[in-house]
Structures
1.
Amino acid sequence: MKRLNITLPERIAEAIEVYQNKSKFIAEAINEKIEKDKKEKLDTLLVEGYKSECSVDKKINKEWEDATLERWPDRWPG
């Protein structure tokens, strides 16, 4: 454990007065924020990755579509 002295806005200091273990509450809140930030960063990276690879995906999909559709007329009854 590491001891820190921090300054909080008055309204936040008043709001956490109801918690018996303020250190635990603050540590959990900070941990939640860190995890949220990590998730948002990962989501951003995934979106950027998808956008950068989108044209490649479309090309591959088109190639497979052409290959799949080639044989479809043979499979239709009539």
2.
Amino acid sequence: MDYKTVLTTCPYCGCGCSIYLEVLNGRVVGVIPAGGSQQNDGKLCIKGWNVHEFIHSANRLTHPMLRKKGALCQVSWDEALDFVAARLQKIKSSDGSDSIGFMASAKMTNEENYLLQKFARACVGTNNIDHCARL
């Protein structure tokens, strides 16, 4: 039996709580709050306590997918990113920047959410960005 804990940051919100993932035989099986962390000082919310549950979900996407002839197909990252870039350019040129919107995620860090809003505003030219965890 191979058991270890891995120090990481909870992915659920921008607070940045420190957690230990409990790993048993190469599989994440639980979470322990990291004591002494300035963000959470050994405490976790209900999302933090259950953060490990989505890691091994059979429904979790692990590769980029594109719909081809009505069916989802696994593609390379280059093909997926090229497709997204081309579609964004086409929509922007035909309907304008404000016809595009972005939805950020509570499972991203503050830094990743900042980069998404910067991309939306500076690259695409839209202020249409929202976040699923806002109040």
